[in-house]
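Run: sequence + iron/sulfur cluster -> complex structure.
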Amino acid sequence: MIQLRLRTDCDRTLAPFVTRIAEGEPLCVDDATLSLEEANTLSYRSDKADFRLRDVSPEDVAGDVLLIDPRRQIAHRLIRAASLHNTFLITEQCDQLCLMCSQPPKPQHQDMFDHFLAAARLAPPGAQIGLSGGEPLLHKDALFTFIDAVFAARDDLTFHILTNGQHFERGDLAWLRKHRARLLWGVPIYSDDPATHDEIVGKPGAFAKLSLNIALMGLAGAALELRTVVLQQNASGLPGLADFIARHLPFAATWAIMQMERIGYGRMNWGQCFFDSSRDFASLGAAIDLMRARRQDVALYNFPLCTVPPAYRDFAVRSISDWKQKYLPACGACTLRENCAGFFEWYREEDGFMEIRPQ
Ligand code: SF4
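>> structure
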């Protein structure tokens, strides 16, 4: 697995700071240049501080934007220059308790917006950065201020924001309209049946609020990616949800049907939630057929390609972030591997898909 945290050495009395590993000559005062390369240690020099990184090669970190925490002697790789999967974790707080949550909520919040702003300013040209949680919009004012500041500094960046859609208000319309070309909102909807959706997200009334707010997003012309994790609880209802989306949410840019991650609550509830679509693709197929017939975009995220019937493989996206993706030994000689999403690092064969078939 790709390391998102690196061991570092620097003056412990310093405050945390953001720096970029220069790929050649430094371009600004935030760039750090390599001054010495030893066995498993790289020494860097910058206007802010000198520091060392351990167990990494200069090529691996070239162009990366790091948040260095001197007290803990850790460098967080906020932006990896070579990756398309960079995400800022805005908060670990959330007002929902989803059955399959991969990042279970925590009560405390650590405000990192200043560091994220410094990092975004140093991002590679044209980068799309993910913003996730928890629920990022629990800190809506600070989040909107942060996005305004990033866009004022960089007119080439975009954000993909994951939100449970519970916290928009009519007063947000103007702001949403202003940034609609540069923000893609990933919003989960698990069923067109309010009781099923509310049960999955662990919050009574969530579906009603979500419906109102998705309509608001439509009014704002916001780019909307609907997201549905397929579970035992909602699999049979997917064709009904497809019909609901086609009739009521035709402005959605896409609908992502996703397989679950075996981590966090997803690990705890795997037995009661995981739906083995390699054995039964009927409801997924019917939902996709319906979307296709209505000419609405649909995609499959996190589905190993051989678990998807050939007629639907064009919808499967290599969606698993590089740092948490793996393949099985059986995948070694598979001809589909290049286009296959593979598996999450924490996937287990013994209670996962029963029909993995290298081709
Ligand atoms: S065998 Fe492995 S690489 Fe091939 S399609 Fe299945 S999961 Fe993907």
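>> summary
Residues 206-220 form the longest helix (15 residues). The radius of gyration is 22 Å.
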